[in-house]
Specification:
The chain is mainly α. 37% of the residues lie in helices and 2% in strands. Bound molecules: heme C (2 copies). One heme C binds next to helix 3. One heme C binds next to helix 2, helix 3, helix 6 and helix 7.
Length: 193
């Protein structure tokens, strides 16, 4: 996975991913706006698939199931505030590993995005999703390269393709998703209409 990402970043920046911050705006796009916007439509299909959207809801309650029903037991950011952590039930691996069919799925640092930057995916148009990802004020300061790194490597993103139980997986495989995301990044974050 790391090799894939450095490769992606080499094509994007011609320097290996290192600690020096790269601002996307200083990198000349190597992909046309048209191709970038088309790639983003694929990216958006993944972001709005149940495995991603359920943790990126409108409001404070995570969602469950492919239908996106509100999480049972009144779990929300408020239950977090009163001390019921997600990790009370969500372990670092899916409950299947413990022989509990249909139990809580699990991955390291299971949780919702912070209230200040909730990264809502639920119900947004692709254009609105794209604008959100382009706005560092909404991504905790991450630029496009930082986002590419996140979708390539983050444990919660990877969980989407190994969700346990009989949960469905996103419409693109992970490698294709990362490639489409990279194409979008290399267009300078071009947005669809
Ligand atoms: C268990 C909940 C959970 C799931 C499932 C989940 N996310 Fe997230 N997502 C988060 C959290 C929490 C953050 C905030 C950053 C962090 O703490 O890692 C986040 C942030 C992000 C960001 C912004 C980058 C950042 O660092 O803020 C993107 C892009 C993203 N997620 C994409 C996805 C995609 C794609 C999927 C599905 C394949 C997905 N997420 C599934 C919880 C989740
Ligand atoms: C009291 C136990 C408990 C707590 C606390 C809890 N969950 Fe869950 N959660 C579950 C169980 C059980 C399931 C499995 C039900 C299912 O398949 O939808 C689940 C499923 C989910 C799913 C559905 C995953 C998917 O796409 O199928 C998400 C998202 C989720 N939880 C997020 C959270 C977050 C975020 C927190 C903390 C704010 C949290 N949960 C706290 C028990 C809990």
């Amino acid at each position: 996975m790391r090799a894939l990402v450095s490769l992606a970043l080499v094509t994007a920046t011609s320097s290996a991913y290192a600690n020096e911050p790269t601002t996307t705006s200083s990198i000349a796009p190597t992909v046309s706006a048209e191709d970038g916007a088309a790639a983003f439509l694929d990216v958006a299909r993944v972001l709005q698939s149940p495995r991603c959207k359920n943790c990126h809801p409108v409001g404070d309650r995570p969602l469950q199931k492919d239908e996106g029903v509100p999480h049972a037991m009144n779990v929300s950011r408020k239950s977090l505030e009163v001390g019921m952590k997600c990790s009370t039930c969500h372990m670092e691996t899916n409950a299947d590993a413990m022989g509990i069919v249909g139990g809580p799925p699990g991955a390291p640092h299971w949780g919702l995005p912070p209230k200040e930057t909730p990264m809502v995916f639920e119900g947004l148009t692709p254009a609105a999703l794209c604008a959100q990802l382009n706005d560092p004020a909404q991504t905790r300061g991450k630029d496009l390269q930082g986002l590419l790194h996140h979708v390539a490597e983050d444990a919660l993103v990877l969980w989407g393709w190994a969700p346990g139980g009989n949960r469905t997986v996103p419409p693109l495989d992970h490698a294709t998703f990362v490639k489409r995301f990279e194409t979008w990044v290399n267009s300078g974050g071009a947005c669809p209409e």
